[in-house]
Design brief:
This protein is of the alpha+beta class. It has helices at about 1-10, 75-85, 100-105, 155-165, and strands spanning about 15-20, 30-35, 40-45, 65, 90-95, 115, 125-130, 140-145. The radius of gyration is 17 Å and the shape is elongated. The relative contact order is 0.27.
């Protein structure tokens, strides 16, 4: 959704937004607020749900639900690079733009997925999250973006509140 956020920030319809890209437009400022690893999401009855230490190599040939290229495609690009670096080729059975949709498909047993670690907050009956070793350069990052000339006191207070709320997730 980064492109929608950029358009809304530039037009003034939005004061602040969260985006996955740092360099979205020269007129938009941003602050890096979240850097997190990826987790493996699997159906509860999948063999990787109880495997001792799932690895990226375990995903080779697995039915995989991935992020699509629409609405920015950052996570798709990151995961494509990650799989190429291992190298691993999962069997992509579905691609969608929203992480919560990916989790719903995994919950239904459609396949497995790599999702940002914060996705663990979404609970579903047939969904298990597993830690998986991912090279440190592959992260899911979020940036607080704000449009030009957004310096009103209320805007600044809201921005500071968001930064404080996300302080535990900020990159070092």
């Amino acid at each position: 959704m980064s492109y929608e956020i950029v358009e809304a920030l530039l037009s003034g319809r939005l004061d602040l937004g969260l985006t996955r890209r740092a360099e979205i437009n020269p007129a938009i400022e941003n602050i890096h607020v979240v850097s997190e690893t990826f987790m493996l999401a699997v159906p509860a009855d999948h063999q990787l749900a109880t495997a001792p230490c799932p690895t990226l190599e375990d995903l080779h040939g697995e039915r995989y639900v991935g992020h699509s290229a629409d609405r920015g495609g950052f996570l798709k690009e990151a995961q494509r690079g990650l799989f190429a670096s291992v190298p691993v080729t999962p069997k992509i059975v579905q691609e969608v733009s929203q992480t919560h949709t990916i989790l719903a498909l995994v919950n239904r047993g459609i396949g497995v997925a790599l999702v940002p670690a914060s996705s663990r907050a979404m609970k579903m009956d047939n969904l298990v999250f597993r830690e998986i070793a991912v090279p440190p350069q592959y992260r899911s990052d979020l940036y607080l973006a704000f449009g030009p000339k957004r310096r009103a006191p209320l805007h600044m207070r809201v921005r500071e509140t968001i930064l404080e709320a996300l302080s535990d997730f900020r990159p070092v």
